[in-house]
Amino acid sequence: MEREMQSETGARGNQQVQSAADTRGKHRISAELKRLEQESRFLEEELEQLERMGSALASCNEMLSMVETKPDPLLPV
Question: For each of the chain's 77 residues, which pLDDT tens digit applies?
Fold first, then answer.
């Protein structure tokens, strides 16, 4: 009889510890999910900015090709 009470008490204690561990695990998973969602939003915004910069990149490449073909007047030949 006494052993049964001890085993029941032990089982309850294990359940309490296990439920506390589950709560911490759920919180950790939730925090990680929020971080990943935030990173995803940041990357989407960055992609949108890069798409808008496409025309600027073409202009920069055109200017660079024009500058590269002309010698620098300050450098000795």
Answer: 555 555 555 556 566 666 666 778 889 999 999 999 999 999 999 999 888 877 777 888 888 888 888 887 787 76
DSSP string, 57-72: HHHHHHHHHHHHHSPP
Q: Residue 73 has what DSSP assignment?
A: T
Distances (CA, A) of 26 to 14, 39, 40: 18, 20, 21
Cα 40 to chain center, whole Å?
6
Q: What is the Cα–Cα distance from 47 to 15, expressed in whole angstroms?
A: 47
CB 64 within 8 A of CB 70: no
Tally: H helices and E strands in the chain: 2, 0
